[in-house]
Every structure is written in structure tokens, then in C-alpha cells.
UniProtKB/TrEMBL annotation, chains A, B:
InterPro entries: EgtC-like, GATase_2_dom, Ntn_hydrolases_N
Keyword annotations of the record: Glutamine amidotransferase, Transferase
Superkingdom, taxonomy of origin: Bacteria
Keyword tRNA processing: no
Molecular function GO labels: transferase activity
Membrane-spanning intervals of the chain: none
UniProt cross-references to CDD domains, sorted A to Z: YafJ (cd01908)
Pfam families in the record: GATase_4
Descriptive protein name: Class II glutamine amidotransferase
Organismal lineage: Bacteria, Pseudomonadati, Pseudomonadota, Betaproteobacteria, Burkholderiales
Domain Glutamine amidotransferase type-2: 2-256
Length: 256, 256
């Protein structure tokens, strides 16, 4: 099993604090040492970092812990290989282009015998169940909506149908973003917190580090952090329900 | 006009030396400060770094100058914006997936009124002539060969036809790689050198730095470096002919 971290904000925010705790799970406080990756949207563009070294030892993870890249949508992943060998092409998140936007995807879980018919424009480069699931999602969205991106309510309905179809093959906790919204689906384990005014001082579970967000934010900032297991010890994290797909925009979940 | 740097090798090699000189052109020894990017193939996987800061000031460029990522195919680009604003989504190289491989593309030049009919699976995310040209190439390759990658001779014939079609709109110096070969097309300016046994000591044009390659290589290593303008002062660089497409595999050009 891998671990997922997502961030969705109303103003570009850096993920240095949350990533610092999360990266320690990549080989130091946990056993997820078969690679890691992170993707940051900046406008329509994406910065995509992947490494097949564990995140706790990676020079690129070290850079990210100290270089405050500001983004409104971030997805990160640390990997414990269950399918596919340890190789760069198997590190999440994966990126594809659809409807003139980049889409970023990461998965935690294990899909048994999931070999969908990929007859369209999206083919896996590596050999994981996760990348097959992502290609299937992209292919089916394009098949349903053609060359034009749908509006959010229509997209949400189809995504719910597709993720449930995939989740029937096993565990499918996943995060997906096109840079405007962050979609998160829980099969077994996912939780989130919304940080907003008055901002608390948060203490990392995985390292002896705390940050007073009120010093680095304005009263209008709002940040949702979504993760496999709570990152902090003194915030109230809300568990997803199994089978639930949540859509985050501007730092909060959008009511269905 | 931008500058291009490519490397194609028979064994995974780091690009630290060549990139160090090249990165100085991104704002220090030259005026290319509107972003930069580099993509390294590792097996089928790609590490892709882009930054809209000039390469000479970028913390990520600094990392790459000191972190010897070993690769058999690398494409780098420093940007002087001619079309499209300075934004992350307009930084080269661009990456798309076709036939279950990542394809990396970078362009130097300016295409006038190039708005091809993009009716397939590849759409630009930014607003440059370069990304439109890349999407057109990917679309046409998929249209000609369907879902199966062709062999190299067939691919070369079609690529020559397509790049000449694009080059009729302006200047189209470009590099393209799927991780197995590096394709380089010259409209106006491109040169290359093949480094092999006995390796020389090379001196960078853009910085007071030299390296004795014989200390860091074995007699079997072979490296082709392709670039807009020669990077070293004491090696013999071969100019491309205008209109020429060269294919590099295992560190040398493949005869047509």
C-alpha cells in the first residue's frame, strides 16, 4: 500500500510543511521506499517530480522541502510496490493531457486482474494497475464527452460511475486533478482537513516540527489537505466514507 | 530565438558538464531568461523539469548542475519568448504519450500563422507555436501508423515529410525523443559532436571550466551532444545542413 497527499487551495500556497512530514514516511517513519512523486499545478502548467529512490533519501525531495513552490493543486505519492517493478515509469503521479489541460493522477491500493480494453489514445508506459486505471479513466472521459470538456456536475456524475467500476477490482483510493479541481475517491482510507481563519499552530505527526499558519497566511486563505493518514496531531481530520468521491475547489469540498 | 541542447548516449551518462555551460546562456552569458526546461529519459520513464525563471537563477537548474542524473536521452531548452507569454505551460520541453512511450519535444524558432487542424487526441495546454507543432506531429504520426509504433526507417520517412511541412511556416529547429532515439531537425542552426575514446579534455565556452572525460568514462562509452551553438572551444563541432533531420542512436547519427 502506498500513501497519498493532496492539497487544494483558493490562493497559491506552498506545501513545504505538509510535504516534510509526508516525505518522512518514504523510508524513515514508514516502509514506503519504492519511489515517490509530486506534481504541482501553476496555472495550466505542471511541475512534475518523480524519483525511484525513497522520498526520505531523495535529493529532489530535499529541494522541494526547501523551495516553496506555490500552487493551488498538488498531488503527491510515496510508493510501496505491489504491482510493477521499482522503476521511474512506475512512480506516481502520472500525467496525461486531455481537453487541452494536464491531468494528474495518483493511486493507493491494489486492483486484481484489472486489464481494461485500452483502444484509444491513452496507453500505459509502465506496468502498474494504477497507470492502467488512469488511462482507462482518460479514455472513458474522452469517449463520453468527446473533444469538449464537460461542466463540473456532468463530469462528477461520470467520474463516480467510472471509479466505482474500477473499485470493483480492488482497492482504489485515488486523487485526480486538472488544475481547477481536485477529485479524491476513497475505497478504504482517506481523510482531510480544511485550514482557514483563524489558523491554528499545527504539529507534524512524523517529525518534531510545528508551524503557526497565522504567520504565513491571510484571513482569506483556505487550504484543504487530503491524505491517507492524518499528518498532524492537533487538528481534527475528517474521514472519507468508503465509496465516497469528493471534489475540492478553492480549498473546500463542493457539496454534491 | 531559444536555444536547444540534446544528448544521446550508448550508456547512461550525466549531462552535468554540458548543462552547466548551457544554463549560463539562460540569463547570464545570453538573453534567454524567459524560462527553461530539461527532460531525462531513464528507461521508459521521464524526469521532466521546467521553470519559468531563467536557468541561470533557478534553484532547480542548480540542483541539476550538482545531481548527476544518468540518462541515454536528454533534451533541454532555454527560452526567449517570441510567441506565448512567460508561463510554466509554455516552457519546453513538452511531453506527451504515444504508443505507450513518452515523447519529449523542444523547438527553437518561430512559426508564422501555424494553426493546424488539431482534431485528434493531442491539444496544446499553453499558447505557443511550438506546442501546436508538437501536437500536430503526434496527431499525424498516430493517424499514419495507428495504434502500433512503426519501425525506425518508416518513422524517419514520415517525420521528414512532417517536419518539412511545419518548416514551411518558419524556423523549425527541433529535437524529439521517445527514449530510444533522438531526432533533430535543423532549419537554420544546429551542430553536434560525438565524444568517444580517446576522450579529450573539453573546455566550456560559457564558463571557465574544463573536464577530462577520460577520467569519467570507459573506452566503450559514446556520447553525441547536439546544440544550437557549440558548447566547447576545443572540440570540432559539425554543423547540420538546413533542412536536415538526423537520427541519433547509441551516441551517434544513424546513416539514412
Amino acid at each position: 500500500m502506498c500513501q497519498l497527499l493532496g492539497m487544494n487551495c483558493n490562493v497559491p500556497t506552498d506545501i513545504v510543511f505538509s510535504f516534510t512530514g509526508f516525505a518522512h514516511r518514504g523510508g524513515r517513519t514508514d516502509t514506503h521506499h519504492d519511489g515517490w512523486g509530486i506534481a504541482f499545478f501553476e496555472g495550466r502548467g505542471v511541475r512534475h517530480f518523480v524519483d525511484h529512490q525513497g522520498a526520505s533519501a531523495s535529493p529532489i525531495a530535499e529541494l522541494i522541502k526547501h523551495y516553496p513552490i506555490k500552487s493551488t493543486n498538488v498531488i503527491a505519492h510515496i510508493r510501496k510496490a505491489t504491482q510493477g517493478q521499482v522503476a521511474l515509469e512506475n512512480c506516481h503521479p502520472f500525467v496525461r493531457e486531455l481537453w487541452g489541460r494536464y491531468w494528474v493522477f495518483a493511486h493507493n491500493g491494489d486492483l486484481k486482474d484489472f486489464f481494461p480494453d485500452l483502444n484509444g489514445a491513452f496507453h500505459p508506459v509502465g506496468n502498474t494497475d494504477s497507470e492502467r486505471a488512469f488511462c482507462f479513466l482518460m479514455q472513458e472521459l474522452r469517449a463520453r464527452f468527446g473533444d469538449q470538456a464537460p461542466d463540473l456536475p456532468a463530469l462528477r456524475v461520470v467520474l463516480i460511475e467510472l471509479v466505482h467500476q474500477i473499485a470493483s477490482y480492488g482497492t482504489f483510493n485515488m486523487m485526480l486533478s486538472d488544475g481547477t479541481a481536485l477529485f479524491a475517491h476513497c475505497s478504504t482510507k482517506l481523510c482531510y482537513v480544511v485550514r482557514q481563519y483563524p489558523f491554528p499552530t499545527a504539529c507534524l505527526s512524523d517529525e518534531d516540527l510545528s508551524v503557526d499558519f497565522s504567520e504565513v497566511t491571510t484571513p482569506n486563505d483556505r487550504v484543504a489537505v487530503i491524505v491517507t493518514e492524518p499528518l498532524t496531531t492537533n487538528e481534527r481530520w475528517t474521514d472519507f466514507q468508503p465509496g465516497e468521491l469528493k471534489v475540492f475547489i478553492d480549498g473546500m469540498p463542493v457539496p454534491a
